[in-house]
């Protein structure tokens, strides 16, 4: 089988398409490239890119699914370094968006905050801290030889 090269995009259900489009624009630099009109003529979805094309993002009006995902973290957004994570903390502070402190997570550092529907957003560093937290509840532990 052909190897995957990455994830093309993430689709997130929302309760208010306009408000979420604006929020993701302000927080992630989301720019809409496509809109999806249903058979009744109502636009219930948008698609585009965040962070200058770093990742595809789609938002779909679906209040029931949005409510079901509140408090869940379906995706980790990546930054390279701990310094980059601290820039995100400053960015969220400027926007007055509540967030966690920097967390020393299983491999690197993590920042957690919520979108308007309560979806838990994770920003995680590629940079590793080298500390093994595998014996702590809720933290991952390495298995096998996966890198």
Class based on secondary structure composition and strand pairing: alpha/beta
User: How would you write the strand order of the largest sheet?
Assistant: 1-4-3-2
CATH class of the largest domain: Alpha Beta
Q: What is the string of helix and strand elements?
A: EHEEEHEHEEE
Count of helices? 3
Helix content: 10-25%
Task: Give an overview in words.
The chain is built from three helices and eight strands; from the N terminus they run E-H-E-E-E-H-E-H-E-E-E. The chain has 147 residues and is of the alpha/beta class. The protein has two domains: 1-68, 2-Layer Sandwich (Signal recognition particle alu RNA binding heterodimer, srp9/1); 70-135, 2,3-Dihydroxybiphenyl 1,2-Dioxygenase, domain 1, CATH 3.10.180.10. A hairpin with a 5-residue loop joins strand 2 (31-37) and strand 3 (43-50). The longest helix has 13 residues, at 82-94. The model has no long low-confidence stretch (mean pLDDT 94).
Quick recap of the structure?
By secondary structure, the protein is α/β, with parallel strands linked by helices. The protein has helices at 17-28, 63-69, 82-94, and strands spanning 9-14, 31-37, 43-50, 55-61, 76-79, 103-104, 109-114, 120-125. The longest helix is centred in the middle third of the chain and has 13 residues, at 82-94.
Structural topology:
Elements: E1 9-14, H1 17-28, E2 31-37, E3 43-50, E4 55-61, H2 63-69, E5 76-79, H3 82-94, E6 103-104, E7 109-114, E8 120-125
Parallel strand pairs: 1-4, 5-8
Antiparallel strand pairs: 2-3, 3-4, 6-7, 7-8
